[in-house]
Amino acid sequence: MKILIIEDEPGTADYLRQGLREAGFAAEVARDGADGLHLLLAEAFDLAIVDVMLPRLDGWTLVKTLREAGRQLPVLFLTARDEVEDRVRGLELGADDYLVKPFAFTELLARVRTLLRRRSPVVEATSLKVADLELDLVRRRAVRAGQRIDLTGKEFALLELLMRRRGEVLPRSLIASQVWDMNFDSDTNVVEVAIRRLRAKIDDPFETRLVRTLRGMGYVLEDGS
Q1: Which fold has domain 127-221?
Q2: What is the pLDDT of residues 98-148, one digit of tens each?
Q3: How is domain 2-119 classified at the CATH fold level?
Q4: d(CA 139, CA 124)
Q5: Helix, strand, coil share (%) of the chain residues, nearest 5
Q6: Dihedral, CA of residue 109, residue 114, residue 119 and residue 123, to nearest 10
Q7: How far is CA 134 from each of CA 92, 140, 144, 168, 202, rounded to the nearest angstrom?
Q8: What CA–CA distance (Å, rounded) separates 27 from 170?
Q9: Beta-sheet pairing, 127-130 with 2-6
Q10: Could you tell me the pTM of the whole model?
Q11: What's CA 218's distance to the chain center, in Å?
């Protein structure tokens, strides 16, 4: 899931981006309303977190323009103002939820997940399964052959990506952009290190290996059959 944070306060923006990435989301930041609107119109995002008071284009105008352009992705407003009139105005313009600063990140994360669940009329799967490996997307747990496997946030995001695209060879550049939300640098071995650590947990203790390396091409998760 890809989230755009439109927030001009660097500390808040970086805090949200880091927290959402650790929760398994791909998160990007726009520092003003005009840039944020441009990104939302040009790229596919699953949700936007929008500060109301933004440089160049305020959050209210941004959401109004977004809805007039036919974009229906969920929008969560952030604001330092706790006036009922402000909340009503934001919701009437097309925002889906409203959170007043300061807020607990756990509450924001719960609201983000709720909005994403509401987005599709089709009930999304709450787990992924390949062979004897199962990933619980709600509890953020992995189990293989009945044995629970503890994963870090990035390991969980990496495994989720591999399982969602099972049988497909994923190049390192794609993995880097989806899991770390960064452009791939050929001088970094972050993907290789993460794959190695993931294999040590989900493959090495078991007879059948699920994650394969295709030299020069990338990585693929298959059911081992």
Answers
A1: Arc Repressor Mutant, subunit A (1.10.10)
A2: 888 888 898 999 999 989 887 654 445 688 999 999 999 888 899 999 999
A3: Rossmann fold (3.40.50)
A4: 15
A5: 40, 20, 40
A6: 120
A7: 41, 11, 6, 18, 10
A8: 20
A9: unpaired
A10: 0.55
A11: 22
Structure tokens at 72: 């229906």
Q: Which amino acid is at 8?
A: D
C-alpha 166/C-alpha 130 separation (Å) is 8
Contact of 36 with 59, CB cutoff 8 Å: no
Cite the beta strand spans of the chain per DSSP E: 2-6, 26-30, 47-51, 75-79, 97-100, 127-130, 133-136, 141-144, 147-149, 211-214, 218-221
Residue given tokens 């352009």 in the structure block: 69
Question: Looking at 143-147, 182-186, 193-197, which range is the least confident one?
Answer: 182-186
Measured CA to CA, the distance from residue 212 to residue 103 in angstroms comes to: 42
Classify burial at 137, counting beta carbons within 10 Å of its beta carbon; exposed 0-12, middle 13-18, buried 19 or more.
middle
Q: Which two structure tokens, joined as six digits, stand for 73?
A: 């992705």
The structural domains of the chain, with segments of one domain joined by +, span: 2-119, 127-221
d(CA 214, CA 24): 25
